[in-house]
Design goal:
Elements: E1 7-13, H1 17-28, E2 33-36, H2 44-48, E3 53-54, H3 59-63, H4 70-81, H5 87-107, E4 112-114, E5 134-137, E6 140-141, H6 169-176, H7 182-194, H8 197-202, E7 208-209, H9 211-225, E8 230-231, E9 234-242, E10 245-253, E11 256-268, H10 277-283, H11 303-310, E12 315-316, E13 321-323, E14 326-327, E15 336-337, E16 347-350, H12 364-378, E17 384-388, H13 390-395, E18 422-424, H14 427-434, H15 438-454, H16 466-470, E19 490-495, E20 499-502, E21 505-506, E22 513-515, E23 521-527, H17 547-563
Parallel strand pairs: 1-2, 1-11, 2-8, 11-23
Antiparallel strand pairs: 3-5, 4-5, 6-7, 9-10, 10-11, 12-21, 13-20, 14-15, 16-17, 17-19, 18-19, 22-23
This protein binds flavin-adenine dinucleotide (FAD).
Flavin-adenine dinucleotide is lined by residues 13-19, 36-39, 44-46, 48-52, 235-236, 269-271, 294-295, 299-300, 303, 322, 337, 500-501, 529-531, 543-547, 550.
Length: 565
């Protein structure tokens, strides 16, 4: 057992992907590093995420003949962030993101592959690409973690094939869109799992991790390779500041207060404040609920934000989150994000008036932003309701409901009826059950059914670009995101204005240094990930738009700490 030291060159607060990336790079720079994590598991939201990172101009895409460039990506990011983010930070991101991932690929256990078909989210903006900037983690063998396997935050079984088999985002997309060879692919994954008798004696979970769990396991193993200590159950409370410089932190561990010295500096990587109801009410648009967030309960409560504010740190974007609609399922510790299903043909989303108010296939951030905008006008759009028919139900999933051809209503949990889903023989009956205006819903469905026939959604242009169609059903013509709602029974599910983390936080510069309200960097203090105000501003330019910057600015912060003696 290593005795706790009290002095390190760098202390990283939090153990998500950005935190561990920063710690790996700082250790490689010859610095002594400590990672402190408040919970009894490392990995944070990063561990239960998709693990995707958005890295324009990356080498994986280039090696496959992809055509991207710094300038193209800058054009796109400037358009996405609408001139609201300091260009120096945008440039730093675009310059260092490809270097960061190349570094991890060659020096650590982290392995990615390009998701060539995953389009940027804003296809209408200049510089967008139809694929090649989002990277998807390769599978990682978690037996390499030894005993540290038990301390890792485990992914939700809902992200695993049949609740236990690891599959990448590329696997999942191939199966969902029924690409050539998808059945064989699933068979291969199942066989590999079944034949791994040795590991299954230890746990039902696959030996391999995918998505965010793969990333976190690979980073944790990389820290182990470097003997970097990671203290669990160590709760950051206060900054230690001497002559205007951050020189350490106060933590509570096992009920004991401890002061830890950080000779070079502290990197805050402790997530946002999405798990703090009081801060949500203070900063986020209303109504807002901790219980709508798809992030691990209790973890990210904004202690770093408040401690830095107390010493004069500047903040930005505090009224924003990485919005995503969520569905609460009884018995599950957190709600589920509804990322893909809104684009499937035959499901629409309406407000209490029975009216559509957004392109259902829009990126999740824009979707919930539209819920808030509409709610301000009518007070009836939070929650919103996703409506679909028997045909949809048979063929496609919606949140926890697997397609009825796999999991018919008779096999669904009894308590889900009227809590997770509502069901009626007529649209009118359904509308009355959920308190939606029946006439409004009737008119909307008639209109959408006409759009499905013509293939053109003249209200919201759903299915009108390659991003919408990524999750569409290519077998459905003329528009893969539109199908009539006509065949009973009819179903409804409640969508809350959820999030996958907050987006605003401490204002940082291109070196990831936290800025004081006077515009100067606070010596010794850095912030990355959701503790910092996002470099993406109020936008979500592509899949991996939160973890890509978290890791990149972790890389930048560590190198800056090493060079800035
Ligand atoms: P976290 O990963 O949450 O790490 C913060 C850590 O700090 C936690 O472990 C927490 O316990 C710890 N901590 C908090 N307070 C303290 C304290 N006082 N002292 C010590 N430790 C503390 N984003 C993407 O870019 N790509 C994706 O594919 C993607 N998929 C997602 C899928 C889902 C289902 C969800 C929920 C999110 C997804 N996201 C994705 C969003 C992404 O996971 C988060 O934005 C990201 O993980 C935030 O990283 P972070 O390092 O800021 O925080």
């Amino acid at each position: 057992q290593v005795q706790p030291q009290s002095a390190y060159d760098v202390i990283v607060v939090g153990s998500g992907a950005g935190a561990m990336a920063a710690a790996v790079v700082a250790a490689d720079q010859g610095l002594s590093v400590l990672v402190v994590e408040k919970s009894d598991k490392y990995g944070g939201t990063s561990a239960i995420s998709g693990g995707g990172i958005w890295i324009p101009n990356n080498h994986y895409f280039a090696e496959k003949g992809g055509n991207d460039s710094f300038d193209k990506a800058l054009t796109y990011l400037k358009a996405s962030t609408d001139g609201k983010i300091d260009e120096e930070r945008l440039r730093a991101y675009l310059e260092y993101a490809p270097r960061m991932i190349h570094y991890f690929e060659t020096r650590s256990r982290v392995r990615y592959a390009v998701a060539e078909k995953y389009p940027d989210y804003y296809q209408h903006l200049p510089g967008s690409l139809p694929g090649g900037r989002s990277l998807d983690p390769e599978l990682f063998d978690t037996s390499l973690l030894g005993d540290e396997y038990d301390n890792m935050r485990k992914p939700s079984p809902t992200t695993l094939l049949m609740g236990c088999i690891a599959w990448t985002a590329r696997h999942a997309h191939k199966a969902m869109s029924r690409e050539f060879g998808w059945r064989l692919m699933i068979l291969g994954l199942m066989l590999r799992y079944k034949l791994d008798f040795k590991w299954r004696r230890k746990t039902k979970m696959d030996r391999r991790a995918a998505l965010g769990a793969s990333l976190i396991a690979a980073l944790r193993r990389s820290l182990m390779d470097r003997n970097v200590p990671l203290w669990l159950n160590t709760d950051f409370r206060e900054l230690v500041v001497e002559n205007g410089r951050v020189t350490g932190i106060e933590v509570v561990q096992g009920g004991q207060k401890m002061t830890l010295q950080a000779r070079r500096g502290v990197i805050f990587a402790s997530g946002g404040f999405e798990q703090n109801q009081a801060l949500r009410e203070k900063y986020l648009p209303q109504p807002t609920q901790v219980g709508w967030s798809a992030t691990p309960p209790g973890n990210n409560t904004g202690a770093a934000l408040e401690a830095a504010q107390a010493i004069g740190a500047a903040t930005d974007l505090l009224d924003w989150a990485w919005w995503a609609p969520t569905i609460k399922v009884p018995g599950e510790e957190k709600p589920r994000g509804i990322f893909a299903e809104r684009a499937f043909p035959g499901a629409i989303v309406v407000n209490g008036l029975g009216k559509r108010f957004v392109n259902e296939a829009a990126p999740y951030l824009e979707f919930v932003d539209a819920m808030y905008r509409e709610h301000q006008k009518d007070g009836k759009s939070i929650p919103a309701w996703v409506i679909f028919d028997g045909h949809y139900r048979f063929n496609y999933a919606m949140g926890p409901l697997m397609p009825a051809q796999v999991s018919p209503d008779s096999r669904l949990r009894k308590e889900w009826l009227n809590t997770v889903y509502w069901k009626a023989d007529s649209l009118d009956g359904l509308a009355r059950q959920i308190g939606v205006d029946p006439a409004g819903l009737d008119a909307t469905v008639k209109r959408v059914n006409e759009f499905a026939r013509t293939g053109v959604d003249s209200d919201f242009a759903r299915g009108g670009n390659v991003f919408d169609r990524y999750y569409g059903d290519s077998n459905v013509k003329p528009n893969p995101c539109l199908a009539p709602i006509a065949k009973g029974p009819f179903y409804a599910m409640r969508l809350d204005a959820g999030d996958i983390g907050t987006k605003g936080g401490l204002l940082t510069n291109a070196n990831a240094q936290v800025l004081h309200e006077n515009g100067q960097p606070i010596p010794g203090l850095y912030a990355i990930g959701n503790t910092s105000a996002s470099v993406m501003g109020t936008s979500y330019p592509g899949a991996g738009g939160t973890l890509g910057p978290a890791m990149t600015f972790g890389y930048i912060a560590a190198r800056h700490l090493a060079s800035n003696v």
